[in-house]
């Protein structure tokens, strides 16, 4: 367990880097910024553009400059070429702990990560009936939510933060075309967050969604897709930083 004598832990988060589609200069600016302004960096999926090992290697060269702990999850783009394990290993070798239903404890906070999946939200969520292929689709959504729930349940500290690629609430997808919203996330992920409460959660994937929303239990949800952050924070490097007060020791 990593402890801290800080009064505040600064958590930085960004997703959808899509390396090498995103300019190297912008990524280097982000990584330099978090070194001075954050204590932990969360990378919320779609770290590469086509899931190619050479794309991961390009990103790895840049993130070796980051001096703070890095945690990440993979996104759908990172699976595109069928080489997600190679992508993961390259990023791990560069210092990123890739989470897939597991956790790390940093600064007395349990960070839990999954990719998540699609399926829709609330009463409009897709249900497992009909053709076999549709049942497999819904099963993937359920399995990712169960993976998140199981990981949260195992964290041995009272404060938890979740990171994922797909959205757990519809609120952070607002602004996207209505036709694609069911493919941007699943409220089954929200169920896990409500069952095992977290301080907050971060995700990407919805490039044109909304920056913030909340679960039905009022947990803050932050959409940290890079294109959205560029639009929302035009006057500084596009990375979300949230300050978390540390409890007073007794």
Helix content: 25-40%
Question: Count of DSSP E strands?
Answer: 11
Trace the largest sheet across and list its strands. 5-6-7-8-10-9
What is the CATH homology-level superfamily? Metallo-dependent phosphatases
Shape: globular
CATH class: Alpha Beta
Please compute the radius of gyration using only Cα atoms.
17 Å
How much strand? 15-25%
Tally of contiguous helical segments: 6
Notes on the protein architecture:
The chain has 250 residues and is α/β, with parallel strands linked by helices. The chain has one domain: Purple Acid Phosphatase, chain A, domain 2 (4-Layer Sandwich). The chain is 30% helix and 20% strand. The strands form two sheets. The protein has a six-stranded mixed beta sheet with strand order 5-6-7-8-10-9. A five-stranded mixed beta sheet has the order 4-3-2-1-11. Strand 6, helix 4 and strand 7 form a beta-alpha-beta unit. The longest helix is centred in the middle third of the chain and has 23 residues. It is globular, with a radius of gyration of 17 Å.
Q: What is the topological layout?
A:
Blueprint: E1 8-14, H1 24-37, E2 40-44, H2 53-63, E3 70-73, H3 84-93, E4 96-98, E5 102-106, E6 109-113, H4 132-154, E7 160-163, H5 187-195, E8 200-203, E9 212-214, E10 220-223, H6 226-232, E11 240-245
Parallel strand pairs: 1-2, 2-3, 3-4, 6-7, 7-8, 8-10
Antiparallel strand pairs: 1-11, 5-6, 9-10
Helix pairs in contact: 2-3, 4-5
């Amino acid at each position: 367990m990593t402890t801290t004598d800080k009064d505040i832990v600064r958590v930085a988060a960004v997703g959808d880097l899509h390396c090498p589609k995103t300019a190297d200069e912008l990524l280097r600016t982000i990584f330099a910024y978090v070194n001075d302004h954050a204590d932990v960096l969360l990378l919320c999926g779609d770290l590469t553009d086509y899931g190619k090992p050479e794309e991961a290697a390009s990103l790895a060269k840049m993130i070796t400059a980051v001096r703070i702990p890095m945690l990440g999850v993979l996104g759908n783009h990172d699976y595109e070429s069928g080489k997600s394990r190679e992508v993961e290993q390259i990023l791990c070798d560069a210092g990123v702990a890739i989470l897939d239903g597991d956790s790390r404890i940093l600064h007395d906070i349990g960070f839990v990560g999954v990719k998540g999946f699609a399926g829709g939200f609330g009463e409009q969520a897709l249900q497992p009936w009909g053709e076999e292929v549709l049942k497999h689709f819904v099963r993937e959504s359920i399995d990712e939510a169960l993976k998140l729930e199981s990981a949260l349940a195992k964290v041995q500290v009272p404060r938890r933060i979740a990171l994922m690629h797909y959205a757990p609430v519809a609120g952070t997808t607002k602004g996207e075309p209505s036709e694609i919203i069911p493919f941007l996330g699943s409220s089954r992920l929200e169920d896990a967050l409500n069952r095992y409460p977290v301080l907050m959660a971060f995700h990407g994937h919805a490039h044109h969604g909304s920056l913030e929303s909340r679960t039905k239990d009022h947990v803050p949800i932050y959409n940290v897709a890079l294109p959205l952050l560029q639009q929302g924070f035009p006057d500084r490097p596009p990375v979300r930083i949230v300050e978390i007060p540390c409890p007073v020791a007794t």
